[in-house]
């Protein structure tokens, strides 16, 4: 039974108190690598306006979970050099730093970042404006494929999928993958195509044996897309769907009866982990749908003997 891997990233959604130059540099390197915005609050313990604005800053951090919100004590022995580097002369000062221009699509950013906004003073409206303007969004892989022929096959697959011709859609996605094998989007599309094809129980999915063969392929694509695009929430949803299929009653028919409950538990636990990753990495419709499926998974786990 396949299992998922945990998402690796710093905990976002709350301000991070930076304790040293090395920690600052480490967080910025991770932010640049993931093309995420960094907002830094340069504050001091004796600064009353800093204390007044701090809850506003924390609330903005909770609303923008894909942006790094950092706090730097300008008087700290190990953080004073950071304040000096950014010429901080008044508290609080908020600095917005982003990946250097021209490196937005790079997998390994080499620059040291660019300050794109700077705000002095405890100004809630101004702080909301600069953070909303530059906030990072949930990651999505590039959708453009390597060749026009791959694009054509993908578009045809999408059209067939909308018409519920899932077998034909999978065939077109496979053609596109052969032409553009580095596209996580294509593997996700094909995984969903297999899933819908299994559910339809037609066009070659009209027997338990055939559906189980398709479940294996669905799992392979789910694992492929999460290995290729670990930061993409929708990819984790595709893997969760595959895990749930692998633990369904029909899939476990040939498993010894005394082992079925354990097989079901393993698949549910894997789906729970994959959906948790999806929720952490997503926003909007994808996040809402992942939360709904996760609730059902957790109910099913609670009902296991």
Automatic annotation (TrEMBL):
GO terms for biological process: response to stress. Transmembrane segments: none annotated. Residues 1-136 form the Thioredoxin domain. Pfam families: Thioredoxin. It comes from Lentinula edodes. This is Thioredoxin-like partial. InterPro entries: Thioredoxin-like_sf, Thioredoxin_domain, TPR-like_helical_dom_sf, TPR_rpt. Gene3D superfamilies: Glutaredoxin, Tetratricopeptide repeat domain. TPR repeats lie at residues 150-183.
């Amino acid at each position: 039974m396949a299992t998922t891997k945990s998402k690796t990233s710093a905990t976002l959604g709350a301000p991070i108190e930076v304790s040293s130059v090395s920690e600052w540099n480490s967080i910025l390197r991770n932010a640049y690598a993931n093309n995420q915005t960094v907002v830094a609050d340069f504050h001091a313990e004796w600064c009353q306006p800093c204390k007044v604005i701090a809850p506003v800053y924390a609330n903005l951090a909770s609303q923008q979970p894909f942006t790094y919100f950092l706090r730097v004590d300008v008087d700290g022995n190990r953080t004073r050099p950071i304040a000096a580097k950014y010429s901080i002369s008044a508290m609080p000062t908020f600095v917005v730093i982003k990946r250097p221009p021209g490196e937005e699509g790079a997998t390994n950013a080499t620059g040291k970042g660019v300050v794109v906004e700077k705000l002095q003073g405890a100004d809630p409206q101004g702080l909301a404006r600069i953070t909303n303007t530059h906030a990072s969004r949930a990651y999505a892989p590039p959708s453009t494929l390597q060749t026009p022929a791959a694009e054509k096959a993908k578009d045809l697959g999408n059209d067939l999928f909308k018409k519920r011709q899932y077998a034909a859609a999978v065939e077109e996605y496979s053609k596109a993958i052969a032409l553009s094998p580095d596209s996580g989007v294509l593997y996700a599309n094909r995984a969903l195509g297999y899933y819908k094809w299994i559910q339809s129980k037609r066009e070659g999915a009209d027997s338990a044996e055939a559906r189980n063969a398709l479940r294996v392929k669905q799992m392979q694509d789910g694992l492929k897309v999460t290995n290729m695009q670990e930061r993409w929430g929708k990819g984790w949803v595709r893997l969760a769907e595959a895990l749930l299929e692998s633990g369904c009653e029909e899939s476990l028919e040939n498993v010894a009866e005394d082992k079925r409950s354990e097989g079901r538990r393993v698949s549910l636990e894997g789906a729970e982990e994959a959906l948790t990753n999806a929720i952490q990495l997503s926003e909007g419709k994808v996040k809402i749908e992942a939360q709904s499926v996760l609730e059902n998974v957790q109910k099913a786990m609670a009902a296991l003997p």
